[in-house]
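Forum > Structural Biology > Help requests

Title: Can anyone predict the 3D structure of Glycosyltransferase involved in cell wall biosynthesis?

Hi all, first post here. I have the sequence for Glycosyltransferase involved in cell wall biosynthesis but no way to get a structure on my laptop. I'd be grateful if someone could post the structure tokens.
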Amino acid sequence: MSTVSLCMIVKNEADNLPRCLKSTAGAVDELIVVDTGSTDNSLEIAKSFGARVSSFPWNGNFSAARNASLANASGDWILFLDADEELTPESARILRQITATPAVEGYFVKILNYLGNENWNEVCPDLVFRLFRNRPAYRFRGAIHEQIVDVILEQNQTARYQTAENLIIRHYGYLNQAIEAKDKKNRNLRLIQAELERDPQNRLLRYHYGVELYRAERFDEAAVELHQAANGIDPAAIYLPKLLRYLVLAYQGAGCPEQALETVRIGLSLFPNYADLYYYGGLSHLEQRDYVQAYHAFRQAAAMPEQPCYYASFSGIRGFRAYYQLGQLAEVFLNPEEALKYYIHSLGDNPAFAPALRSIVRLLKPQDDPEYARQCLEKICDFCTPQAQLWLGQILFQESAYALALQYLESGSAGPQVPGEVKLWRAICLCQQRRFLEALHLLKEFPPADPLYPLALLNQLLCFWIQGNRRKTLSLARQLQTLGLSEDTAAVISLLTHVLPQQQKIFELTDSQGQPIFLAWAKRLLKRGQDSGKPAKTAGVRLGPDGISLLLDILLRLIDLNESALAESLLNRLDPEVLSGQAGAIGQLYYRYQRLDEACQYLRFYAETHPESAAALYDLAEVERDRGNAIHAETLYRQALALDPKEPRFYIALIRLYQKLRRELLEEAVAQFPEIPVLQKLLREAQEQ
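Reply #1:
Sure, ran it for you. Structure tokens for Glycosyltransferase involved in cell wall biosynthesis below:
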């Protein structure tokens, strides 16, 4: 029976090493651990598992350290793992079987790379060479991304490799926290740069360099390196599919969709079933607003067969990711039923894919009909665990469906340990139900040392401010100001203290067109500034991005509480330029709650001050349509189309408006001339459309 030596190099791997070594029990005959300078208890952990431990001074060369571990191995076979990896439970049996095969010199092994973070991760499979016969001539080469496959072939030209299909390694080193903790990106870039200076013709090394540049978001440089690595490559190179995908991604990151699509075309001529190339080609078509080609690309990605391991296909490319993009496309064409179907497919393929669930929640409009949304959601998914209930509660909270969110947040936090974020969300939901005493009770539980304490204080202030309690509002504002707030947050709090509910009546004044007087005043100031070429001088409050984000959140909550007068009182004190820049977002908030008159006022203001914005004209047209002003809506849709003829929504909205007008006109005609068959026929046709 053949023996197997596990060879490892480690440095400060106390958090990972027990999991790795435990997974190899029964699979290997000896543990060889070479330490390159640990300052934690990695050595003690390795010894506790019976490992033979030695030290090797780190010299910036992974191969040198790996070869030191091989020199200590006595087994017939070498298995090498990193500390952030583990064998799956069934791998021990498989390992014993395949090492009994006499004609094989080494094995490629399936590795499952976990990406993302602990709360949300995904799996990217790949093939790696990790198992080979222990021979003195077989030694690693390369300072980083060390190689031994070619070395074995150089030493033994008859060497034969196989793929160990069911021997599987799990790798956790690409999780965000692992990358950040070890600063892997910068370390790898430094090592590969030095190695390339010594061996500039090494195509594989240049590929790895391009991938590291891509991960460091240096997309232009990555594209150059990956293109150079691909130019003239042997089409049989096992890493070519991955190289092509990363080249596409680098071009996309660099804002070069044409080059990305050309790479997709070349790649599919070599690998016609490569789902990743279809998927990322679809994204490039989307970037160019070529919606038909994008649709076909995502459909092709979803229809591809199981991908070979060496493609290292990203998870969900043939499933939840492709379905999600098809749902997004359906929304572009104003087809919510089709979009909902694709989002449900996406969630069915991956029940933890938050973007799909968030889109489903948004389309169900739970703030309008919470009970209907609840029934639909519970048919789609099983939210029976506290964790699932909290997850759904969070998404509903983010969609401002406070009443329904509160139900799930409360049912999901029945245990003794409630996360601070959940407690804060519950308090805000209670506030939005005007259950202020209950909200304040939760908010006062946050101690000053809690990172969420400033947010808890701010929400206490809002509870009292909405109720018109001047004394408590000012007291809490003073407390908040002592916490070292950002300039933007301090400005919003100051804004709140200068506009208390009992002062709001003055801001309800309107002009002869029913428009708030301060909006007309802001328009005059902006026009005066435009005519003079200088910004209008006002005493209005100016806010940066963080302050605007906070203010919009407060406005949304005020509109949700039907406190429009309070909302207007805050808006009245903004600088006209700030108000002009955010009028579109404010109008959309009002439209979300079907406050059509207010929505129309702000969207019209935004459209007048941003005449180049087709989206603003479209939003205003939607409001005018809902207000029953079909002729005005038709004009606005046409203006939007003239500015942006590649936007499908504008065509579809206009077509539907014409269909509605046609039906209404035919109904009037039939009422006037009920005996005319042709009119009745036309009406039936219109009603069937």
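Residues 501-610 form one domain. The longest strand covers residues 121-133.
Shout if anything looks off.
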